[in-house]
Amino acid sequence: MSRRQRVEHTEEWTLIEPLLAWHEQREYELLSRPIVLFGDTPAERARQTGAAARALHEKAHRFDEEGVPSLFPTRRGPTLRPEIRRLIVDLKVQHPPLSLGEIATICYVQFGRKPSKNTVKAVLREEPAPLFPKRHSPPYHEMSEGRERRSAVVRLHAEGWTPSAIASYLKTSRQKTVYSVLSRWVKEGESGLSDKPLGRPKGVSKVDLRAMREVRKLQENPELGEFRIHAALARMGIDLSPRTCGRILAVNRRLYGLKKPKRGTEEKKEMPFQSARRHEIWSVDIRYIDHHLPESELPEGGGKVYVISILENHSRAILASAITTAQDTSAYLSVLYSAVERYGSPEVLVSDGGGVFKANQAKAIYRSLGINKEEIERRRPWQNFIETTFNIQRRMADYHFARAESWEELARAHDGWMESYNTQSHWAHRERKDARRSPAEVLGFLTGVRHRPEDLQRAFFSTRFTRVLDASGYARLKHWKIYAEEGLAHSEVALWLGAESLSVEYAGDTLARYDADYSARWNRLREVGRPRLFETVHRRKTAPQRRLFELVILGDSGWLKALKKEGYALRKPRRPQALQQTLFSYVEAV
Fold this sequence. Notes:
This protein is of the alpha+beta class. The chain has 6 domains: 13-71; 82-126; 140-193; 209-256; 282-443, Nucleotidyltransferase, domain 5, CATH 3.30.420; 463-564, no CATH class. It has helices spanning 13-16, 23-37, 42-49, 53-66, 82-94, 100-111, 117-126, 146-158, 163-170, 174-188, 209-218, 226-235, 242-256, 329-343, 360-369, 385-403, 407-423, 439-443, 453-459, 544-554, 577-589, and strands spanning 281-289, 305-312, 317-324, 348-351, 372-375, 464-468, 474-477, 480-483, 492-497, 501-506, 509-519, 524-533, 562-564. The strands form 3 sheets. The chain has a 5-stranded mixed sheet with strand order 3-2-1-4-5, with helices on both faces. β7 and β8 (480-483) form a beta hairpin. The protein is elongated.
C-alpha cells in the first residue's frame, strides 16, 4: 500500500477540489458535509464553489430521500425489460455473426420495441452469457424432413431474421434455399412447406399431342423460328423450351417437307441509340409489305401498301402502327398523334432521312411537344431499333399479309401481329431479373410527357381537323364536302390534310383517302380528287337503300365523293337606320 501524501486541513474549496479523484468523493465534499451536516444553505455553498445553487438544492433533496446511494451515478431513461435483455444475450450466443442492428430488429418484431445499437451493445457488455448455450434449430441439412427444414426457415423469418442471417445460421444457401422457401410460402401458404412430388419420371416428355398440333399449325408460317414458337405457345399455356420447339420444328420439316427460316449471318453491331429508361427514345420507320389483294378489293386507285410503326426503344413495344396506301406526311403524323395521345411524348425521336420525317409540319410538331429529332447515319439502317422489329414482323406477319383477300383481312392481320408481338416474350428481355419478358410487361403503365387534349390539338392544328359527319356521311373542310362513311353519320371523325393528300379516320381506321392540292402558306385547299374508300367494319352500318342506289343505278364511281361548295357569303353590316334618321332630323331642326 502506497504512502499517502500529507496535506494541511482547510475549508477552501479551491484547495480541496484538486485533491478529489473520484466523482462520488467530489459530490460528498460539495454537498454532504457543508449542507447536510452543518446546515449551510445551497446559495452560500454555491458562492464558495461556483456551482449552481439550484443543482445543489436538488442534490440535497435527493440525499435526504435516498441517502448515500444518491451520490453514485445511475442509468437514466427507460430500461429494457428482462425478457428483452435475455433475448439479446441469447441471440448473440446462438449466432455470434448477428449484427447489433439485426438483433435490434428481431427484438422489435418479437416485442414491439427496437433498442438502439448502443443499448444492445451495453446489454451484451453487462449481462452474463450462459455457460452451456443451446441451438434452437439444427443446421438445415441435419433435419430429417423437408417440411421441418422449410418450417425452420419460415419461423426464423417470422421472428425477424434476415435471409442472410437465416442462411448463415442454418448453414445453407441464401438464393437457392432461403429465398426459394420464402417465395413458396408467400405463394402457397401452409401447403408450400410440404414436399413437392418428384418431376417427370425418366423417359416421360412434356410434349403431348396438343403441343405437337399447335406447333404444326404455327409452322404454317415458315418464317417462325424456335423462339417465336416458344413465345406463341406460352400465351396458350403450353410451356416448352425454345430448344424443344426447335426439335419439333426439325421433325416437322422432315415429315412434311417444310422450309427452314432464313437467318442472317452478320455479326451483331453496336447500337448508337440505346435507351436507359422508358420513353427516353422512340424509333419510327415505314416498311413496304407484299400483298396479293385482288384489284376489286383494293381502294380505288390503290397500289402499294405500307406499314408505319413507332417503337419504344427500352421496352421494344410498338406504341402505334397502321397500314396505309401512302407514305406521306399526313399518314405519318396520324400514327405519331396516336402514340403521343396514349403514351405522351418522348425525349428523342429517331428515324432515317426520309422526307416525311423532316417536313416542316413535322418539325413544328416536334418543337411544340418538346421532342428532339435525331437521324441515323446514311446507309446504316441497322442503327434504327425498329428495323429489327420489322424483321420480326416479316417472320410473324408477312405470311398472313400474303394470304389476306380483302383490305379488312389485311388490317386484321396487322392488328393481330401488333397484339401478339407486344404480349409475347422478346429475345431482348430473356435475361431480365424482374421476370418481365414481353414488351408490354416491360413498358408497364409508365408514360412519357403527357399533354392536355387542347395542347395536342394546338400542336397538330395545321394538319389534323375534327369534324362531325352529316346525315349522308360527308364532312365539311375549307369549302369542300368530303365523303367519309354514311354508316357513321353524326359521328366525329379526324381529317388529316397534307400538301398532296387528304384522309379521313375514325377510331384509328382509315375510312377514305383523297389526292389534294393544299397550300399551307395561303391556307387554301385548291383541289380534292381521286377518292379511295376503304373496306372497314363501319361500312356494314350503311343504309342498304343507299348502297343499292350506288351500285345499281350510279355504280361506285358514278356519285361525287368530293364536292366543292361556294364560299360563305359575307355578312351584311347592320346599320341603325332609324337611329340615324332621328339624329339627322334633330340636326336639321337645330
